[in-house]
Amino acid sequence: MDIRIGIAHSPREISFESSQSPADIEKAVAEVLSGASGHLSLTDVKGTVYLVPATTLSYVEIGAEEARRVGFVL
Predict the structure, then answer these.
(1) What InterPro entries does this protein's entry cite (predicted)?
(2) For residue 50, what pLDDT is reported?
(3) How far apart are CA 66 and CA 37, in angstroms?
(4) What pTM was estimated for this model as a whole?
(5) Where in 1-74 does DSSP place strands (E)?
(6) Do 7 and 52 contact (CB within 8 A), yes or no?
């Protein structure tokens, strides 16, 4: 699952693949936006933890899982 996180006042975004379900990610983002948590914490497939302060969170894009393609694309 591809995740992209936009950071306020930053031209770059955080982009990584996660093994978490879309429902888990959406729940974590909702908790941050409601004020229940001060930061968003997500983990990628390699185990790296990403912490984003709630005050700098611009957007979170949750992509669909896509099977890896093998071979040539015409």
Answers:
(1) DUF3107 (IPR021456)
(2) 94
(3) 30
(4) 0.79
(5) 2-7, 13-17, 39-43, 49-53, 57-62
(6) yes
